[in-house]
Each structure stands twice: as C-alpha cells, then as structure tokens.
C-alpha cells in the first residue's frame, strides 16, 4: 500500500526517444549539414582566437572594459585575463571562449526573431511559454543525450547543448522589451506612414534594446555555465581541465581552471551589463 501503484506508470520518455530516433532516420542529412556548418564556424573562431597574439587580446579586453565601464575596470579585466595566462591555461581559455561565442551567436540568430514573433503573436507566445519553462528548468545534463545522438561526440554536440540551454533568456527578454514599448509611440509611427517593418526596426527594437541586451547578458552567462558539462561530450577548454582535475582529485588544477572560468564570467557579465547601460542611458 505504501508503494505507488505500477498500474498508473506512464512511460512518456519512450515517446521522446522514438521522436529523436525518427529525426535521425529521416533527417540525418540535414543534421550532418548543420553539424558541418557549426563545426566550420567554430573551428574558424577557435583558430582566430588562438592566432591572436596574447598582448593584442589583452589590449582588446582593456579597451572594451574601458569603453563599457571605465579605465580602472578595463585595467582590472586585462589583469584577470593575464592571470589566466600565468596559470598556463591561455589556449584552453580561447577554446572555451570559441564555444561560448559560437553558442551565443547561434542563440541570438534564433532567439531574437523568435522573441519578436512572440511579441507580435499572443498565440505563439502562449505556445512558447511552457517550452521555454521546460528548457530553463530541465537539468542541463539531459541536453547531452539528444546532442550525442544527433551529432555524436565532439565540439558540435557541445555547442548544440549549450545553445539549447542558453536560448530562453534572449527569447523572453526580446518579447518583454518589445511589449513594453509604449503603444503611443507605435501608433505615432503608424500615423506618420511607417510600415510594420519600419516601426519594428526604427521604433520598437531601439526602445527595447536595453532589455534585449540584458537577455544577451543572461544568455552569455548561461552558455558559460555549460562549459564544464559540455566537456563531458568532447568539448576542450577550461571545462575539460576542471573535469580532469575532478577525476584525478587534483585540487591545484581544479582551482586554477575553476577560477579562470570565474574570471571569464565576471568579465563577460560586467562588460555586457556596461554595454546595456550605455544603451539605456545614452550620453
């Protein structure tokens, strides 16, 4: 009597498994093409970052930090990145950054149009809301299973899983930003003869940009939080160093790789927040 009745057992997972297998059988060529495209872009991004001289990258971080915040913040960012180099993790940091940037770019290419569509269509928004809730609350490890089935092991499934995990914030906040644009401004644009596209591009998106930038910030941070988990399916970088340190119970290696991820997260977070405030409070 204390055990839950077996009669009420609902095996919903088998339907998801069958759906993923159906995708593999019927759209294998499509996923191969997507995999090749993502891999090409990721490799180009990684090669560029690894080719970039370390001092040039430090200078870029300093200038971006100075522009987004102030001189002291820019200098602090450069020092933090320099410390990662002193740990001997410079190349691993570039590999991690390549995966994060690739995932964020794909998330923005998908998320901003979906957010706009959600803002324009209440029916689409109602459908998307539970899907986004599920994407945000689903344990991140779960995304690794379909990623491996569709793209095998390596960098591509890592980008796929990271993108799925990081996508919801930019969709939600793009939707929110456009919906919060005063209706009077939209009506004024229409009264002056603006088309729907012109109103979106010249009125709604500029007004919603601070909120959208907050979504980009959250998406980037969520992508960075996946680097250790993504290393389990073949993604090299700082996450792999943490994983290896766990396997060997190497406290020193784990601390250096972990604190490097923290430095990267701080820099990305403060930089994107600073850019968002520039749009919100123009000089």
Task: Describe the protein's architecture and organization.
This protein is mainly α. It is built from 13 helices and no strands. It has one domain: MetI-like (MetI-like fold), CATH 1.10.3720. It is globular, with a radius of gyration of 22 Å. It starts with 12 loop residues before the first helix and ends with a helix. The model has no long low-confidence stretch (mean pLDDT 85).
> What is the domain tally?
1
Question: Roughly how much helix do the residues carry, as a percent range?
Answer: over 70%
Strand content: under 5%
> Which of globular, elongated, flat, extended, rod-shaped describes the shape?
globular
CATH arch. level architecture = Orthogonal Bundle
CATH class: Mainly Alpha
How many H/I helices? 13
User: In CATH terms, what is the fold-level topology?
Assistant: MetI-like fold
**What is the assigned CATH homologous superfamily?**
MetI-like
Taking pLDDT < 50 over at least 5 consecutive residues as the criterion, the unreliable ranges are: none
Total strands: 0
Major beta sheet, specifics? none
**Category from helices, strands and their pairing:** mainly alpha
Q: H/E element string? A: HHHHHHHHHHHHH
Alpha-carbon Rg, integer: 22 Å
Give the overall average pLDDT: 85
End-to-end gap: 69 Å
Q: Topology, pairings included?
A:
Blueprint: H1 13-26, H2 28-51, H3 54-68, H4 71-86, H5 90-120, H6 122-137, H7 144-151, H8 155-179, H9 183-191, H10 196-224, H11 227-230, H12 238-248, H13 251-280
């Amino acid at each position: 009597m204390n055990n839950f009745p077996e009669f009420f057992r609902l095996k919903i997972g088998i339907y998801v498994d069958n759906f993923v297998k159906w995708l593999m059988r019927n759209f294998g060529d499509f996923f191969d093409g997507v995999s090749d495209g993502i891999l090409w872009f990721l490799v180009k991004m990684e090669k560029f970052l690894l080719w970039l001289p370390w001092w040039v990258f430090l200078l870029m971080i300093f200038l971006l930090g100075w522009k987004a915040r102030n001189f002291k913040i820019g200098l602090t960012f450069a020092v933090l990145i320099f410390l990662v180099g002193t740990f001997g993790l410079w190349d691993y940091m570039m590999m991690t950054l390549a995966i994060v940037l690739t995932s964020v770019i794909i998330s923005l290419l998908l998320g901003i149009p979906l957010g706009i569509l959600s803002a324009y269509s209440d029916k689409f928004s109602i459908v998307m809301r539970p899907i986004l809730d599920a994407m945000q609350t689903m344990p991140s490890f779960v995304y690794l299973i379909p990623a491996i089935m569709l793209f095998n092991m390596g960098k591509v499934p890592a980008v796929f899983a990271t993108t799925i995990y990081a996508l919801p914030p930019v969709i939600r906040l793009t939707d929110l930003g456009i919906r919060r644009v005063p209706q009077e401004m939209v009506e004024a644009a229409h009264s002056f003869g603006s088309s729907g596209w012109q109103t979106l591009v010249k009125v709604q998106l500029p007004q919603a940009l601070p909120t959208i930038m907050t979504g980009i910030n959250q998406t980037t941070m969520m992508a960075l939080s996946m680097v250790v988990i993504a290393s389990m399916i073949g993604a090299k970088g700082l996450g792999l160093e943490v994983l290896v340190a766990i396997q060997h119970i190497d406290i020193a290696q784990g601390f250096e790789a972990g604190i490097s991820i923290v430095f990267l997260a701080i820099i990305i977070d403060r930089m994107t927040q600073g850019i968002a405030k520039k749009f919100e409070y123009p000089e």
